[in-house]
Design brief:
The chain is an alpha+beta fold. The protein has one domain. The two termini are 20 Å apart.
């Protein structure tokens, strides 16, 4: 219930951001974009909407993410599932004053990778870097080079109640966890650190070389994971949810037909 509530509050925060700016927050920003804080994440941009405005003000605009690691050393309780003991980044370089940064268990949905069951065509993927590239068919965008623009609720033509906004990755002993403030590394690396594609089944795939962007939704809950939909509702997805359904949930405009019931 606590995990579900965390995701609910994050979903509502994304909607509040949309109300204020006319667009959803970016999944990740790099150094080349119009956002005031560079090289960071959705999790930073929604801080003012989860009663963490003072923490947001500590972020230094216009610098690369290591310059803000002191902010990442703050634990944001609402970004962590209490069922998981994995609270810290698995990257030893993400530290401030000797303290390793905290991570998050709630990841931006970048979109699906695979074949659209409704059209029998491949989803739209930007092949960049060596970690799987990233989908361009989800509700939350990587905003860095001007190629991808932030989404609005109005261009989620599949319907906000049918499109996943955020998904849980909280499996213990997995190695994919990074600082909750760390955004788009670069076009060379191609890593939006706390945004993931939907490519694999639930609880199926931790980080392996070449697969960082495609780590599965996962949890320590019994038989499934929690996700937030674009309308702010929270759903529990069973481990047995078909991959075709997961791909349809991840797509904002693919026209897929499926049922979550």
């Amino acid at each position: 219930m606590s995990c579900s509530n965390n995701l609910k509050q994050m979903g509502l925060a994304c909607q509040s951001f949309h109300d204020a700016y006319g667009k959803l927050p970016p999944a990740a920003t790099g150094m080349i974009n119009d956002y005031p804080i560079k090289d960071t994440t959705l999790h930073v941009y929604i801080l003012p909407y989860i009663e963490q405005g003072n923490l947001y003000k500590k972020m230094v605009p216009g610098v690369t993410y290591p310059n803000n690691y002191a902010v990442g050393s703050n634990k944001v309780k609402g970004y962590l599932c209490p069922s998981s003991g994995e609270e810290l980044s698995k990257s030893s370089g993400e530290a401030s004053g000797g303290q390793v940064n905290y991570t998050t268990h709630y990841y931006a949905n970048l979109g699906p990778i695979g074949t659209n069951a409704a059209t029998s065509t491949a989803y739209n993927v930007r092949s960049v870097g060596s970690q799987g590239g990233y989908s361009r068919d989800g509700p939350l965008a990587v905003v860095s080079t001007g190629i991808d623009a932030p989404a609005t609720l109005s261009n989620i033509s599949d319907g906000t109640s049918n499109t996943m906004l955020l998904g849980e990755i909280s499996k213990e002993k997995w190695t994919c966890y990074r600082s909750w403030i760390r955004g788009w590394d670069s076009d060379a690396s191609g890593v939006p650190n706390v945004g993931k594609n939907i490519k694999n089944a639930i609880n199926a795939s931790d980080y392996t070389p070449g697969n960082f962007n495609n780590v599965s939704l996962s949890s320590n809950h019994t038989n499934g994971v929690n996700v937030t939909m674009c309308d702010g509702s929270v759903r529990f997805l069973s481990d047995s949810t078909a991959l075709s359904v997961l791909l349809g949930l991840a797509s904002r405009n693919g026209g897929e037909v499926f049922s979550l019931d």
